[in-house]
Amino acid sequence: MKVEVGPGYGGKYGFRPHFFPSDDVIYLDIYPPKFKFNGNWVVGDALNLPFRDDSIDEMFAGHVIEHLKDPLQFLKECRRVLRRGGIVTVVTPNFLSRNAYLDPDHKHVFNFLKLWRLVKMAGLRPHFPSPNIGSLFPRKLRLLFKLILLFLLDNLTVMGEKV
Fold first, then answer.
1. Do 4 and 28 touch, CB atoms closer than 8 A?
2. Half-sphere exposure of 78 (CA within 13 A, CB side)
């Protein structure tokens, strides 16, 4: 089972799903869709996920965490509902991006260190998916390039794995 948190409901934030609608995908948002939708839609709160413990294989939250009152509570809820080995993927604007400051509904701004710590504090193992950078470069130089990219990217993506 897959859950997408905050795919947009057709209001201010248009419906932009990450997961293709199918029988094993549930979309969760605070409002019902303003359009005809034949998929699985749950109206609920990201800080109190309406799912049983250890029931979800994969979660995706794109441009959601920066809107939440308590991002750590959200990640703890993700940990609660994920099965062992389950992954939550969180995408949010980087602190150096204009997008982090344009929306007045944003309550938080993240850099990769803050996001890393938050995922770790929730009891998940954090991973930053990173691009392959010139395999001919020495390992330490590739790591340096990846760290520089984490500061410069417009959006940060972090994956938290339940171990």
1. yes
2. 37
What confidence tens digit (pLDDT) does each residue in 101-126 have?
999 999 999 999 999 999 999 999 99
At 59-96, the pLDDT tens digits run 999 999 999 999 999 999 999 999 999 999 999 999 99
pTM of this prediction?
0.90
77 CB-near residues (< 8 Å, 6+ apart): 46, 47, 48, 49
Alpha carbons 92 and 67: distance in angstroms, whole number: 10
Q: What is the DSSP letter of 140?
A: H
Q: CB of 86 within 8 A of CB of 58?
A: yes
155: which strand partners? 93
CA–CA distance from 59 to each of 131, 137, 157 (Å)?
Answer: 21, 34, 13
